[in-house]
């Protein structure tokens, strides 16, 4: 059974932007991404290409483009978008009554 930790209010993540969080149980910084239609995704804040901070990238549709080399990552799967290859670890996140909850291991 997953345990969730309340992270922030939805409005604290910029629309089409990101917010970085660190939890007591995660060793890697996690980026929370909010799309234009208020869906929230959680990925490790580390591009598989050159290690750039994905949280500094441009969110468009259901993806984020790394600020270093425009490497595109699907927010739902963490997979690099063709023709690129690579994978970013995803984390379970839920929005409940305007609050963002992150599953912690």
TrEMBL record:
It comes from Silvimonas amylolytica. It comes from the Bacteria. The lineage of its organism: Bacteria, Pseudomonadati, Pseudomonadota, Betaproteobacteria, Neisseriales. The keyword Protease does not apply. InterPro entries: Rieske-like_NirD (IPR012748), Rieske_2Fe-2S (IPR017941), Rieske_2Fe-2S_sf (IPR036922). Keywords: 2Fe-2S, Iron, Iron-sulfur, Metal-binding, Nitrate assimilation, Oxidoreductase. Residues 5-102 form the Rieske domain. PANTHER family: 3-PHENYLPROPIONATE_CINNAMIC ACID DIOXYGENASE FERREDOXIN SUBUNIT (PTHR21496:SF23), FERREDOXIN-RELATED (PTHR21496). This is Assimilatory nitrite reductase small subunit. Signal peptide: none annotated.
